[in-house]
Amino acid sequence: MSLKIKRICLICSLAASFLLLLQSVKAQDTAAISSFLIKQQKSIGKAVALVWKDGKIVYQKELGTDFNARTQAPIAASSQWLTAAVVLTFVEEGKISLDDPVGKYLPEFNKYMKSYLTVRQCLMHLTGFERDKGLSTKVTFGRKYQTLEDQVNALAAKEISANAGEQYFYGAYGPAIAARVIEVVGKKAFERLAQERIFRPCKMRATNFGFDGGCPNPGFGAQSTANDYLNFLIMLLNGGTFEGKKVLGEESIKEMQRAQLGSEPVRYLPEAVTGFDVSYGNYIQEKDASGNAQVLSSPSLAGTWPYIDLCRKYAAILFVADAKNEVKKDLAIQFREKVDEAIGACK
Q: Are 281 and 256 within 8 A, CB to CB?
C-alpha cells in the first residue's frame, strides 16, 4: 500500500472516529436530566433512571443511597405490561384466542352465568367487576388466597356492576382471570409461565410475581429491578427480540401498539394515565400526526414509569423505590422531555 493511500485511510478513520464521538456526546448530553432529577429528588425519593439507545445505556442516574439498578422493588401496575406479554405468547401459539370466553377454560364462570366474559375483556379491564380505587387494595389483592385458582374461583361468584364489555373499570380482577386461563392451558403456575416465556429470555433474573405471600397478583404484584424492566423494554423496542432471541411475535408487538378501548364508558381510570389511549397492559402516551403510537408506557401507581419511544428508538425507565413517593404524571412527562432533548428530535 502506498504512503498516499495510507494517509487517506488514516484521515478517513480519524473522520469516522470523530463522527462517532460527536454522536456519543450528543446521546449522552444529559446534564439537564440529572439537574432535573436532583431538583425533584425530595418528591421522587430513592430512584434509578436509565435510558437505552443504539445497543447501550446512554444515561444512568441513582438517587439516594442503597438503591441502584439491581435493587428489587414493587412495580405495582407496571406488572400489567408483563402479564399481557405472557398471555399474548399463548395467543401467538394458537393455544387461546383473545375472544375466547373464559368459561371455556374456567367452568366456575359458567356456573355463575359469566361465561360470556372474554380474555380480551380481562386484559382491557372490561370485566364488569368494580374494585376499590385505592392503590393499597390493588396491591394486596389476593393475599388471603394461596393459589390463583382459589382467588379466581372466588371472583367468579362476585357480583358485577355491568355486563362484560360495557364499562371500563381499572383494577386487579381482569389480569388475574387472564393469568388463570393460561395456567389452565399451559398446565403450569402463572409465575412459572412468566419466568419461562418472558423473564428468562429477557434475562430478568430478579423479576417475579411471588414476593408478597399468597397467590400471585398479575395486575399489581410483581417486583423487579431497573435493569430487569429495561431489558423488557428493549425487547419491545426491538420488535420482540432480545439479544438475538425472539420472545414475542410481530403481531403481539403490533397489538400492544394499538388503542384497544373503543366507545366503552370509563368508570374509573387513574389520573396518571388519563388522556392516554388504552392497550394491553400499557398505554399509548403519544401519537404521531398519522395517529400511530409513538410513545408507549405502563405507569405504576407506585411511582415507577417505564416507556419506549418508537420514533427516537430508545427505552427509558424511572424506577422508584417507595410506593409512598408516587411520581406524578407531570414529573414523569418532564423527565421524558429532558431525555428527548438529550436524544434529539424525532425524525
A: yes
pLDDT tens per residue across span 86-142: 999 999 999 999 999 999 999 999 998 888 999 999 999 999 988 655 555 566 666
DSSP H or E run through 74 = strand 73-74
| Span of 21-25, 96-100, 162-166, 173-177 with lowest mean pLDDT | 21-25
Domains of the chain as residue ranges with CATH: 31-343 (3.40.710.10)
Joined grid coordinates for residue 93: 401459539
DSSP states of 135-167: HHHHHTTTTT-SSHHHHHHHHHTS--SS-TTS-
State the Cα–Cα distance between residues 296 and 284, nearest whole angstrom: 5
Q: What is the pTM of this model?
A: 0.90
Q: Residue 49: which H helix or E strand, with range?
A: strand 47-53
**Antiparallel, parallel or unpaired: β 56-63 and 168-169:** unpaired
**E strand segments, the chain:** 47-53, 56-63, 73-74, 168-169, 223-224, 241-242, 245-246, 266-268, 277-278, 283-287, 293-297, 305-309, 314-320
Contact yes or no for 30/59 (Cβ under 8 A):
yes
